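Q: Here's a chain of 252 amino acids. Please give me its 3D structure as tokens.
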Amino acid sequence: MQATTPRPRRTRAVVVLDLAATVPAAVRRALTGGGGGSRLLGWSVLAVLAVVVATVLLVAAVLRAPERLAPAAQDPAPRGGAVIVPEPARTRSTAGPSVPPPSVSPRPSAGPRRPPTTRPSPTATPAGTPNGAAPSRPAPPAPAALDADFAIEKPQLLNYSAAVTISNPGPVPVTGWTLVLTLPRDSLGVTHVAGAYATGSGATWTFVPDGTTGRVAGQGQVRVTFRVTGPPQTSAPTACTVDGTACGGVAG
């Protein structure tokens, strides 16, 4: 069995040239035909063949050099596979003609800048005080002098119980006081003292506050009680003072 070799594939240019080669034979057959009708038909065929030949030549020219028919405004294809990005279309602004920005002239250098000087802010002077001195506060009121009242509460045949009420007439509290009591004779004694500590020297007895009566509040009072050994008719005190102020209720 004989092997057949494959025929080479015909390109478009070869096909067009083969068609062009058959044109002269067809023209010759059309012109050599007999009769008037045959000649008219031959000339018609010849015109058609001329158009065909022109078309074939145009196609052949296009196939050989297609780049000649490319539009003039089209850019040539980039080499090396480069991609050309088209420029974005510029849109017209409808807001009016564009105004160029004003030119800015460079400022002349004035040399090194000096740091800003800070001025001390004046201090506010309180109203009514000279030279900004702080207003003087009013001095607190001084404590008032204490008052005292002596009274015999439980008289008996040979002794009696007495009480001295110490009062503060002012609004400021008073801390500490001294009560001095003078009896008619040195032989009379003082016992059962409450609200003070008592010490005797002859007929004079001195009382100082204990822990419960040392502070006399403003408009307040404290009491000191004691017993005197002697009949009340002849043993009543002849003098009584608190911080040098005479007590009430004692006949001098």
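Q: Can you summarize the key feature?
A: DSSP finds four helices and eleven strands in the chain.
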